[in-house]
Amino acid sequence: MQPIVNEKPEYNYANFWIRAAALLIDLIILGILFKLINLLFGLVLPLNLSLENFRSDDGELVFQGFFNWSILTFIILKIAAFWLYYALMESRLGATVGKYIFHIRVTDENCVFLSFKKASGHAFARLLSIIPFLTGYLMAFFTEKNQTLHDLLTGCIVIPSYQVSHHQIFNQDIVTPQEIINQ
What we know:
Blueprint: H1 16-44, H2 69-92, H3 97-101, E1 104-108, H4 116-130, H5 135-138, H6 149-154, E2 156-160, H7 166-169, H8 177-182
Helix pairs in contact: 1-2, 2-4
């Protein structure tokens, strides 16, 4: 009986420009989501940052505490929306809306869809790719597998959807009838 050797297949990795177009779509969707948060909670929470609120009675500009509960609530809600958008979409569908449109999927190195925990780490590592000046995204030009900083930190790859088969999604090894006969 010979042991079955599983070699890692070579994948066609999604290039920088397709990923950039997918990111643009995701940023538009997140922008709309953030606007909805502003509209919904802006009606409930008092948030007025115009300069007249920072002037004293005699008209001098005075600094007041910038962080209050309403601003902190907005920040937390936007971070939660960012996190849930990326973590839920990448763990359930293997792609965000932008990636889904361009038929690319986020998987781990073994071509298995991300767990919610790993997708959450991938989402928060994305914040490191943004700072400073999107340099973490530009790393896709220089890496062998077109990986960005957040992909490298979490061990993810982005590949075309046709390379993701059903058994790889659920992390199951499918045994072919020929392998059963050879055993």
